[in-house]
Amino acid sequence: MEIRHPYLLFLGDVADALAAKTALGIVDWRPEWCLGQFRLPGCAADAKIPDMTVEEAARAGVKTMVVGAVNAGGVLPDHWVASIVAAIEAGLDVATGLHVKLSDVPAIKAAAEKHGTKLFDVRHTTERFATGKGTKRPGKRLLTVGTDCSVGKKYTALALEKAMRAAGFDADFRATGQTGVFISGRGVAIDAVVADFISGAVEWVSPAAAETHWDVIEGQGSLFHPSFAGVTLGLLHGAQPDAFVVCHETTRTKMRGVQHPLPTIREVIDLTVTCGRLTNPAIRCVGIAINTEHLSEAEARRVIDEAAAFHDLPATDPIRFGMDGIVAEIGKHWGAKGAGQ
User: Residue 237's pLDDT is what?
Assistant: First the structure.
């Protein structure tokens, strides 16, 4: 799916900023696409962009209203429907990452059919994917992988895209999750694809390209997570990454939602190489991205320096300290613009 921008971000009446994390993530990485936010009375989240009605947004040139808020169960509250219908009546497309399909709500479906606007359910792609073939295709690819879920794989991939472009690389972020799709305007939520077609969907997300072009592919889950390892493995095989970056949150001891201990960075590197060689025998780790949000700056630098020394790889916190070291590592192996050496 390809979602038109600029966006109006609908925050509804959510109780806190965490419930609006989709909208806030879009603003963090694509502020130029976000012309305004639409909030209902009582909304406790604020994306720090202008408040707009749907009519004001349409006059300003907005193309799509993104439902950038979530709630338990991913349902669409009944009292949000009128706002979505109003956006459609103003001529806007509407996109959501909720589990419920917009077209399953009669009032929304009828309004879209009447006004000729598009509905995008990011978790429910209409694209039909082939099974993965594992045949090497032109272009270069980098995948972010994790010691756990929610450790910064999306933010690391986006920071890498930005840093690689600044260094002269031809690089594009490729989204495999709902927020990533909104940030890039295209992609597929891999966790909603039928298992047999996950690797094929990733081949579709990152197709053949020029030999010097890099796709920076957003990772999902973890090879060590008992709930989500299947998605992670399918993504790894479909991505055929030439390079990967391990993402880690240093204060955790157990994986999210389960009692399994967190694997070490070395364990993730070794298993990613072992499994990744099936579709790319030349796969290699080029760096470590550590989420140090809960550490002081001094502690963060110490942890990062220790990881870099222990693994003999560049390490960083992408948000705090940038990606120059990892970009330099990529250049060392593939040349300043990724052409290969």
Answer: 98
State the pLDDT at residue 73: 62
pLDDT per position as a tens digit, 200-238:
999 999 999 999 999 999 999 999 999 999 999 999 999
> What is the CATH classification number for the domain harbouring 106?
3.40.50.720
3-state secondary structure of 51: strand
* The model's pTM: 0.86
CA atoms within 13 A on the CB side of 142: 36
Gap between the Cα atoms of 228 and 143, Å rounded: 16
Tell me: the pLDDT tens digits for 110-136? 999 999 999 999 888 778 899 999 999
Handedness of CA 126, 130, 133, 139 (dihedral sign): negative
Please tell me whether residues 273 and 245 are part of one structural domain.
yes
Q: How far apart are CA 96 and CA 41, in angstroms?
A: 20
Amino acid at 132: G
Asked if 223 and 77 sit in the same domain, the reply is no
DSSP letters spanning 33-47: GEEEEEE-TT-----
CATH number for the domain including 223?
3.40.50.300
In a domain, 300, yes or no: yes
pLDDT of residue 125: 78
The alpha carbon torsion through 316, 317, 321, 327 (nearest 10 deg) reads 50
Contact 156, 198 (CB under 8 A): no
Residue with structure tokens 């080029």? 286
Question: Which residues constitute the domain of residue 73?
Answer: 7-121
Q: Report residue 341's pLDDT band, with 50, 70 and 90 as the boundaries.
A: very low
Nearest 5°: CA angle at 46, between 11 and 71? 40
Number of domains in the chain: 2
